[in-house]
Amino acid sequence: MPLSPDQQAEIEELRSQPQQTLRAVSPGMEAHLYHARPVLDHGFVRVVDYMGDDAAITQAARVSYGRGTKSVSNDEGLIRYLMRHWHSTPFEMCEIKLHVKLPVFVARQWIRHRTANVNEYSARYSILDREFYIPEADALAAQSTVNNQGRGAALTGEEAERVLRYLRDDAMRAYDHYEEMISTEGQDGLARELARMNLPANIYTQWYWKVDLHNLLHFLRLRADSHAQYEIRVYADAICEMVKDWVPFAYRAFEDYRMGGATLSAAGLECVRRMLKGEEVTQENSGMSKGEWREFQGLIG
C-alpha cells in the first residue's frame, strides 16, 4: 500500500486542522497539500509544504530590475519574459517540499539532481518494508538497438512471464534472507546497516525532497521528457500536475519555452536562415556531424 496507516492518520489529522496565515498562498497548491498521489505500484508523491506563488516571482523580479520592468504590463507577461531570457533567480523565490516514496533505482537517478535538500528513510535505523516495484507486463522491454541507455520493443509471451517471475521471486527471496539475518530469535542478528546490502534495487525507499522552483523546472524538463526512463517520468508527470496548479503562469511559460521549445546551435540557426532564403542545405554543406544533422532534422521536421 502506498501510505502506511500511521502516515494516513497523520495526513487526516493535519487536514482537519487548517491554520490561518498572513503569508501568500496558492489556492491551487492548497488543494494538493497532504494528498498523496499514487505512482507506480507502491509509490506516491505528496506536497508537505511550499513557499511562494506566481506573484512571488514577479515581486522578486521587480526588486531586481526596478524600472526595467515598467514596460511589462502584467505578471504573466513578466514571467514569460524571465523564462524566455533565462533569468532564473526570481524563480528561486518559490520552494516546495515533497514526500516521495520510490524504488531505490529511481532514487539513484533522482539524486543526480544535486540542487535540492534531501533526507531519506534510513535502513541503518529502521527496517524496510517488504515492498518492491514489479513492472506491468507492458513496461518490460528489450534493450534498445540505437540507444545504449534506453528500451526497445516490448517483451512478450514466455519471455515476459519468465522475467516477471524472476523479479518477484528474487525480491521475495532477498527479503526473506534480510529478515532472517536481522532477526534476534536464537541469534545475535546482523546489524541492519549490513543486512540492507542484500536487498535489491527495486525495493521502495522514502524521502523528503525540498527544492526551489528554478531547479525543480530543470528537473522536470529532463525527467518529464518522453526520452526519460518511464519509472522516473511518471513521478515527474505527477509533480507537473502539482506545479501547474501552484504557479500557473510560470508553468505555462515553462511548457512553451522549455518543454515545447528547442535550442539551436549557431550552425543550426545559420542553416535555418539559408533554408528560408531558398538554399538547399544538406548534411554535407551544413557544417554539422551526422548525429547533429539527424537531431536538427528532428527539430525542424
From TrEMBL:
<feature type="binding site">
    <location>
        <begin position="109"/>
        <end position="112"/>
    </location>
    <ligand>
        <name>dUMP</name>
    </ligand>
</feature>
<feature type="binding site" description="in other chain">
    <location>
        <begin position="120"/>
        <end position="124"/>
    </location>
    <ligand>
        <name>dUMP</name>
    </ligand>
</feature>
<dbReference type="GO" id="GO:0006235">
    <property type="term" value="P:dTTP biosynthetic process"/>
</dbReference>
<dbReference type="GO" id="GO:0050660">
    <property type="term" value="F:flavin adenine dinucleotide binding"/>
</dbReference>
<keyword id="KW-0274">FAD</keyword>
<keyword id="KW-0808">Transferase</keyword>
<comment type="similarity">
    <text>Belongs to the thymidylate synthase ThyX family.</text>
</comment>
<dbReference type="Pfam" id="PF02511">
    <property type="entry name" value="Thy1"/>
</dbReference>
<feature type="binding site" description="in other chain">
    <location>
        <position position="196"/>
    </location>
    <ligand>
        <name>dUMP</name>
    </ligand>
</feature>
<keyword id="KW-0285">Flavoprotein</keyword>
<protein>
    <recommendedName>
        <fullName>Flavin-dependent thymidylate synthase</fullName>
        <ecNumber>2.1.1.148</ecNumber>
    </recommendedName>
</protein>
<feature type="active site" description="Involved in ionization of N3 of dUMP, leading to its activation">
    <location>
        <position position="223"/>
    </location>
</feature>
<dbReference type="GO" id="GO:0004799">
    <property type="term" value="F:thymidylate synthase activity"/>
</dbReference>
<comment type="subunit">
    <text>Homotetramer.</text>
</comment>
<dbReference type="GO" id="GO:0006231">
    <property type="term" value="P:dTMP biosynthetic process"/>
</dbReference>
<keyword id="KW-0489">Methyltransferase</keyword>
<keyword id="KW-0521">NADP</keyword>
<dbReference type="InterPro" id="IPR003669">
    <property type="entry name" value="Thymidylate_synthase_ThyX"/>
</dbReference>
<dbReference type="GO" id="GO:0050797">
    <property type="term" value="F:thymidylate synthase (FAD) activity"/>
</dbReference>
<keyword id="KW-0545">Nucleotide biosynthesis</keyword>
<dbReference type="GO" id="GO:0032259">
    <property type="term" value="P:methylation"/>
</dbReference>
<feature type="binding site">
    <location>
        <begin position="112"/>
        <end position="114"/>
    </location>
    <ligand>
        <name>FAD</name>
    </ligand>
</feature>
<feature type="binding site">
    <location>
        <position position="89"/>
    </location>
    <ligand>
        <name>FAD</name>
    </ligand>
</feature>
<feature type="binding site">
    <location>
        <position position="223"/>
    </location>
    <ligand>
        <name>dUMP</name>
    </ligand>
</feature>
<feature type="binding site">
    <location>
        <position position="218"/>
    </location>
    <ligand>
        <name>FAD</name>
    </ligand>
</feature>
<comment type="function">
    <text>Catalyzes the reductive methylation of 2'-deoxyuridine-5'-monophosphate (dUMP) to 2'-deoxythymidine-5'-monophosphate (dTMP) while utilizing 5,10-methylenetetrahydrofolate (mTHF) as the methyl donor, and NADPH and FADH(2) as the reductant.</text>
</comment>
<dbReference type="GO" id="GO:0070402">
    <property type="term" value="F:NADPH binding"/>
</dbReference>
<dbReference type="InterPro" id="IPR036098">
    <property type="entry name" value="Thymidylate_synthase_ThyX_sf"/>
</dbReference>
<feature type="binding site">
    <location>
        <begin position="212"/>
        <end position="214"/>
    </location>
    <ligand>
        <name>FAD</name>
    </ligand>
</feature>
<feature type="binding site">
    <location>
        <position position="120"/>
    </location>
    <ligand>
        <name>FAD</name>
    </ligand>
</feature>
<comment type="pathway">
    <text>Pyrimidine metabolism; dTTP biosynthesis.</text>
</comment>
